[in-house]
Design brief:
This protein is an all-alpha fold. Helix content is 79%, strand content 0%. The radius of gyration is 21 Å and the shape is globular.
């Protein structure tokens, strides 16, 4: 299959998925339009902040690509930015997130570097993206505790303590898994784990046997990033983490729309933003735990409603936030899928 045919198939799948998502909104088009009108001009910064977030993601990926290229290989930041947006769009609109975006990114990068370098760069960035999530969730636990100790209205009881401890344990397990992966590579091990799934054992063994040399090279390049280029590793990690924190602005803009400003002023807005970071952390945790659903249908909405209600805010804010966040996601998914045609020309 040619690259152009592959891209055309992904483009058609993406457009079809977006149309289906538009037609299966949990609210009627009249209600949806009412919510969009309610958002008004705030919709522009809500959508626009993700342009900044995706740029930060692109910078994080660029740090990995630069450390993983040889002489004569070069990918411009603009192309990385476009591939970042398109990759996330395909991940959002395809089942089992990642099955659409990552192969597309590899195919596009092979225009500028070897297949081994393209594959390892994409896998390394995907690992970093997930790894930063664990740090985001882990530090959010201590942010919650810090706000509570400062006299915030956040709850602290046995149930909350149990949830916080569970999140910490989950994150520590994630840190252990990724530390092993970064030291020794993880592609072969993941394929071996896939082989334990009923019906996939023979496929896994055949794939590993056929591509053993290439897979070993990719694993060695994954291990080399952490061992030999720690600057690129931690630069990428910090940028990805900062991108996670920046997502709090989306929720903050919605809170301001409803007049929620924690008393206003620099201090009030700071506290509001920290609350929004906690909301986004809990929502992303729930959404990623059930990431096999296209666009995490229902999970993202429930996460916003539950996390906002947990902070003692009005339930209607949670419902509104989930709807506007879905609109924003549809806009960026459409932009990303459309870029497949741009990259194809």
């Amino acid at each position: 299959m040619s690259k152009k045919t592959f891209n055309n198939i992904l483009f058609l799948i993406g457009i079809a998925a977006i149309i289906v998502m538009c037609l299966t909104f949990d609210v009627s088009f009249i209600e949806l339009w009412h919510h969009i009108c309610h958002a008004g001009y705030w919709l522009f910064p809500i959508i626009g902040v993700w342009g900044v977030i995706y740029f930060i993601n692109a910078l994080s990926w660029q740090a990995i690509i630069k450390s993983n290229t040889s002489e004569g290989e070069h990918v411009s930041l603009l192309r990385i930015y476009r591939l970042t947006i398109t990759g996330y769009a395909l991940n959002n609109v395809t089942p089992v997130g990642g099955l659409g975006g990552e192969p597309y990114r590899i195919v596009e990068l092979t225009r500028h570097m070897t297949k081994d370098h393209a594959s390892s760069s994409v896998i390394l960035y995907a690992m970093m993206h997930i790894y930063s999530h664990f740090w985001y969730w882990f530090t959010s636990v201590f942010l919650y505790i810090a706000l509570w100790l400062c006299g915030d209205t956040l709850l602290m009881n046995k149930v909350v303590v149990g949830c916080l401890l569970t999140i910490c344990a989950f994150c520590l397990l994630g840190f252990y898994f990724f530390s092993k992966g970064y030291k020794n590579g993880m592609v072969v091990k993941v394929l071996q784990l896939i082989g334990k799934i009923p019906g996939l054992k023979n496929w896994s063994h055949r794939f590993i046997a056929k591509h053993q040399e290439t897979l070993d090279k990719i694993d060695s390049q994954i291990a080399a990033l952490h061992k030999q280029d720690k600057k690129a590793f931690y630069t990428s990690l910090l940028l990805e983490y900062f991108g996670r924190v920046m997502q709090g602005f989306e929720i903050m803009f919605i809170m301001l729309l409803f007049g929620e400003d924690c008393g206003g002023g620099p201090l009030g807005l700071t506290v509001l933003f920290l609350h929004c970071v906690l909301i986004q952390a809990l929502t992303s945790l729930l959404a990623n735990l059930i990431g096999f659903l296209p666009m995490q249908l229902g999970v993202q909405e429930g996460g916003y409603v539950a996390s906002i209600a947990a902070l003692g805010l009005r339930p209607e804010i949670g419902i509104f936030t989930s709807i506007i966040a879905r609109v924003r996601q549809l806009v960026w998914d459409f932009i990303g899928v459309t870029m497949i045609r741009i990259n194809n020309n």
